[in-house]
Amino acid sequence: MTNPDPVVPVLITNDTTAVIHGEPVSVPPGVTVDQAVMSYLQLEAAGVGATITVHIDDRRHAVNASLLVNPDGTTGPQEPAPDSRTPKPTRELSPLASVRALAVAGDLNAAITRADTLLRKWSADPSLGPQHPTTLEMAQARAELASITQDYPYAYAAWSWLAATWHEKTGRCPRTHPHDHEHCRHIAMTTSKAATAWMQLPTQVAMQRSHEILELIENLAGSDKTPAGKAVRDRIAKWKTLQGEHQ
Mind listing the pLDDT tens digit for each residue in 98-154? Predict the structure, then answer.
């Protein structure tokens, strides 16, 4: 199979409708169209194991923009495109790419089953194990699938585990110039996604795990004064206010 198209076309027509590769994107309740689009793009980049170039046509704000989405979930500005006349190599579809292909085709259940099977196999393989980069990439793709299918308990557990695993592998991010370090981007991204999944948990479940998510944010992101930390604290404060009113 050839590599994916050089540029991934994204059309956002309103706050609930987006199209990627000509196919509509499902926007779960409680998730913004921007979050849903980014989850699909991160899954695609992880699936092909390479940075993808994305062109976004956002009709809501009359914005046309291009950006790069990296396999680790980070983004950046578009770099100059290579000469289109240069032949592009072909390659076999990797296991991760096969999961991504199933997801993009809309067969999410098959993608989840395939990802779960590979995660169990690779985690038990002495040559790989649960913390091998290949396994972690698949775990990230599986977490994205959980978010897309609104399996927020799984998504929260998966993103939390990924954040903690990156922390264990590389150590805590320094409070100064954290973006100078690649591992800090992994930790920040996975911690933020864990917080996003926590925000979607039922209230009682979320409040039971409120100290857990706050500790995760503070310990792994280096501070609880991040946007994710503020969102979590705001939800907790609102819940406590409602509890006080009912007493």
Answer: 887 777 777 888 889 999 999 999 999 999 999 888 898 899 889 988 988 889 999
Joined tokens for residue 225: 């004064």
| 40-83 pLDDT tens trace | 888 888 777 788 888 888 887 777 778 788 877 777 675 444 44
Nearest to 47 by CA among 9, 73, 80: 73
**Residue 2: both structure tokens together:** 């050839």
Can you tell me the distance from the alpha carbon of 164 to that of 156, in angstroms, rounded to the nearest whole number? 12
Q: Are 22 and 43 in contact (CB under 8 A)?
A: no
Q: 169 — alpha (psi -120 to 50), left (phi > 0) or beta?
A: alpha
How are strands ordered across the β-sheet holding 23-24?
23-24, 17-20, 7-14, 52-58, 63-69, 75-77
pTM tops 0.70: no
Q: Does residue 173 contact residue 187 with C-beta atoms inside 8 Å?
A: yes
Q: In the chain, which residue ranges form alpha helices assigned H by DSSP?
A: 33-48, 95-104, 108-124, 133-148, 152-170, 182-199, 203-208, 210-221, 227-246
Q: Which among 237, 238, 218 has a CA at the least distance from the CA of 228?
A: 218
Q: Which residue has the tokens 């990230």?
A: 140
> Which among 178, 98, 79, 168 is positioned nearest to 137, based on CA atoms?
98
So what's the pLDDT on residue 171?
67
Residue matched to tokens 């699938």 = 145
Is residue 153 within 8 Å of residue 166, measured between CB atoms?
no
